[in-house]
Design a protein that fits this description.
Elements lengths: L3 E6 L2 E2 L5 E5 L2 E5 L7 E9 L3 E11 L25 H18 L9 E4 L10 E9 L2 E7 L6 E3 L8 H13 L11 E6 L5 E6 L5 H15 L2 E5 L7 E4 L4 E5 L4 E5 L9 H15 L6 E5 L7 H5 L4 E6 L2 H13 L5 E5 L2 H6 L8 E4 L7 H10 L3 E6 L2 H12 L3 E9 L9 E8 L1
Parallel strand pairs: 4-6, 7-22, 12-13, 17-18, 17-20, 18-19, 20-21
Antiparallel strand pairs: 1-5, 2-3, 3-4, 5-6, 8-9, 8-11, 9-10, 11-12, 13-14, 15-16, 21-23, 22-23
Length: 430
Amino acid sequence: MSELIKDLAITGLVHGGRGIGRIDGKAVFVPMTAPGDCVNCRAVRSKPSYIEAELVKVVEPSAHRREPPCPYFDRCGGCQWQHLAYPDQSCWKEKIFCAQMLRSKITVKERLAPIVPAPDEWHYRNRVQFKCHLAENGLVIGFYRPNSHFVVDIKRCLLLRPEIQQVLTLLRQELPEAPCPDHIPQVDVACGDDGALRVLLHVLPKARPQLRLWLQGFAQRHQLNACLQSGRKDTIEAVHGETDLSVIVDQPPLILNYGPGGFAQVNPAQNRRMIAEMLAILDLQGTEDVLDLFCGMGNISLPIARRAGRLTGVEEYAPAVASAIKNAAVNNLHNVEFRAADAARAISRRNHSDLDLVVLDPPRSGSYQASLEILRAKPQRILYISCDPATLARDLAPLVNHGYQVLSARAFDVFPQTWHIESMTLLGRR
């Protein structure tokens, strides 16, 4: 039987969202806890320097703890911090971001700027992936339980925009009556800044014809845009309505479209704040030669292009490049070029003699190889946008160790109720 640890004092939170306490000199990590809690927990994994545990009971709750408003909180893996008041969530994200930078011996020329909290802690998500599973008592629609593929049946999610919640209600009513419901592993729902909705139904290939007809009828009845996917992204097909959704950024507004399989930030309000902050710290003069790696559909590229001399965007996903090219044309930006290519390879093959700025916004896994190639290119400045402080610190290490210094760094709370942290770091040559 696993060891029961009694009366553990939780003193803080760490990257990954767990609370931390100590016993006999060992760190003990316990999810669903708050700084100031006194808890009983059960060890599930023991290592020489730390213990991973599960929460058994909150003996004495912290003053920072609140009652989670979502009835699924202790079962659903979507949120980890609903038990913390929102100001405390933001405060701890800032502390964790700073601690990760310090632990990695990355110093900032000026003090790290305070975190930018979200304007709304609820109803901010404009994209979501619902998992589906046919159980004995019917079709289950919701999200995975933490660290498992067990689908928790969700009737209402407090993070969703109201428009997406309405689609979830419709799916729960009608999807069980679709043909072959056991051939539907996932449904993606996204909402554009103009309120347009798109449903992307993931299906197993052999059920594609029957489910295409069902999806077409569903979309027509509810005036939704709809697509079908039966494998990799190249199997996506439009079934009803428009495929693209739009986001609005910058001032005066840029309207940017992206298709199914493309990427857009889940929190449009924070996305606009990040772009405004980016433009302020870059202070572009209209002459800069800019390279934007992992450019997607141009969310960062095109606001920069408005203020720079020229910009080249690189993105591996070809349909996103097509969206970026179209977005540039629609917004009358002609000083841009977009290419479908691997980021690290693209920068290694370029003549960098006049490169002023490299921007990169990689996936959560980061891109250490791109950092190495950027180091060889020696641009005047580097802007790194990250959604994981750990991979950010790893990727910054070769840059700060070989000729660059961090000029500014700031965290943004793009994902309230979760431990995830977005950040923006600007580096310059020493």
